[in-house]
Design a protein that fits this description.
Blueprint (H helix, E strand, L loop, with lengths): L12 E6 L4 E16 L21 E17 L5 H38 L3 H11 L5 H17 L17 H13 L5 H18 L27 H8 L8 H13 L3 H4 L7 E2 L4 E5 L11 E5 L2 H7 L18 H14 L9 H13 L4 H8 L8 H16 L11
Antiparallel strand pairs: 1-2, 2-3, 4-5, 5-6
Helix pairs in contact: 2-3, 3-5, 7-11, 11-12, 11-13
């Protein structure tokens, strides 16, 4: 009977699976390590050993990571002829050659991986280094992704021990699934998806730099209804109330910038970046390239007509040398958001308004005013009409609310 001789320390090991036709299929079994997950009680607290050499130490659930590779090679289980025995000998020799080659590849990969682990032993450090070197407009969202991940670790009993130090091999698929549920429970609208996308971006970079052997986020997604507008919008009447609302210690620069976004549809990262050079005063145009889509969308360049009222928000540069100065020298995004929320509250508007609501309000109000969806899509710098269609649905919802606000109809015909 054909038997495969394997040594305990071989990795991968050559194994066989018995077939119904009297043969055995040969395959390699790789051992890729193990993960340890703390055992928790019903209240989510760690379980400890109560006796023996491990007394007082926490219990862990061990999961071994193995992978198989089918060689498409076959041997006779009970060779009857000299030819079958010779065939088995040659097949096993070939299989052992393949096994040895795979073993050398695995050793080389692991040695390289070990060097990386020694250089960066804490994934939090890698994340911070990534943020420090990141220069794109969504850097603030990358920072938020790391803060949310650390908050998740700290608030989840099974992972609280990783709040300060977490090694690469401890980033498991189970942890990522739990992180996704945490994001969905602590956010709404497109927020959880946006944060998770940035988090995955960092892990993808770690894989590219051989810090991680594979991305534990692969196959895990957060789905949102992209056809529905999740954020609140300000109606023209509410915008008018804002403009009429003033209070002590208000910030006129932030207010002018927010109004400019309401009437031009700019994101915060764009309105905080445009200079007087982006204004064509002769033709009354705003010409700029969107930070979010710059370099990877044909629709990143946007041209928006300006009227006299909007130009009054911009003003004029004091000298020609000031054309490269920012129109709205804004503080941090957090400071701007606080100022807008304070302004909205003082105006008596009971809505959760963020800076991005200005962009959504611009799109919805244009559609409510009768603008063609293609025109709105162009003004917003959308690469496809599908991104603009959610504004149409929001516009329909607002029209329904307007009809319902007329009051009830109590009418009965004459009998």
């Amino acid at each position: 009977m054909a038997n495969i001789k394997t040594k305990n320390k071989q990795n991968p090991k050559l194994q066989q699976a018995t077939l119904s036709d009297g043969r055995a299929s040969l395959y390699l079994e790789f051992y890729l390590g193990r993960t340890e997950t703390p055992v928790l009680d019903e209240d989510g607290n760690p379980v400890y050993y109560t006796a023996g050499a491990m007394k007082g130490k926490p219990k862990y659930k061990i999961k071994h990571d193995r992978r198989k590779e089918n060689l498409n090679l076959y041997i006779w289980i009970a060779p009857r002829t000299q030819q079958e025995r010779l065939q088995n000998k040659n097949t096993l020799a070939l299989a052992e050659k393949i096994r040895f080659e795979r073993e050398q590849q695995l050793l080389e990969d692991r040695e390289g991986y070990r060097l990386k682990k020694e250089r960066i032993s804490n994934f939090h450090d890698f994340f911070e280094e990534y943020i420090e070197n990141y220069t794109k407009a969504d850097k603030r969202m990358i920072q938020l992704a790391h803060r949310r991940f650390r908050a998740f670790l700290k608030e989840t009993p099974a992972y609280a021990m990783y709040d300060r130090i977490i090694r690469q091999q401890q980033l498991t698929k189970e942890m990522m699934l739990a992180f996704v549920e945490y994001l969905k429970a602590h956010g709404k609208g497109e927020g959880p998806q946006s944060i998770y996308q940035r988090f995955k971006k960092v892990l993808t970079n770690a894989v590219e730099k051989d810090i991680l052997p594979k991305n534990p986020c692969d196959g895990i997604t957060i789905k949102v209804d992209e056809k529905t507008l999740k954020k609140e919008v300000l109606s023209p009447e509410e915008i008018k109330r804002l403009m009429e609302t003033h209070y002590a210690n208000e910030n006129p620069v932030i207010q002018r910038a927010f109004l400019f976004s309401l009437f031009c549809g700019l994101r915060w990262c764009d309105v905080s970046d445009i200079t007087y050079r982006n204004i064509d005063y002769a033709n009354k145009l705003l010409i700029f390239e969107q930070n979010k889509t710059r370099g990877h969308s044909s629709a990143s360049g946007v041209v928006i007509p300006l009227n006299e009222d909007i130009l009054s928000l911009v003003g004029q540069p004091e000298t020609t040398d000031d054309r490269d100065n920012k129109i709205f020298p804004l503080p941090s995004h957090t400071a701007c958001l606080k100022a807008v929320k304070r302004w909205v509250k003082r105006a008596g508007i009971d809505k959760h308004i963020t800076w991005h609501c200005a962009r959504h309000s611009f799109g919805v109000n244009l559609l409510n005013g009768g603008a063609n969806i293609k025109i709105v899509s162009t003004l917003l710098g959308h690469s496809s009409l599908k991104h603009t269609e959610k504004y149409t649905r929001a516009s329909d919802d607002l029209m329904s609310k307007a009809i319902n606000s007329l009051g009830s109809v109590n009418y009965s015909s004459m009998k």
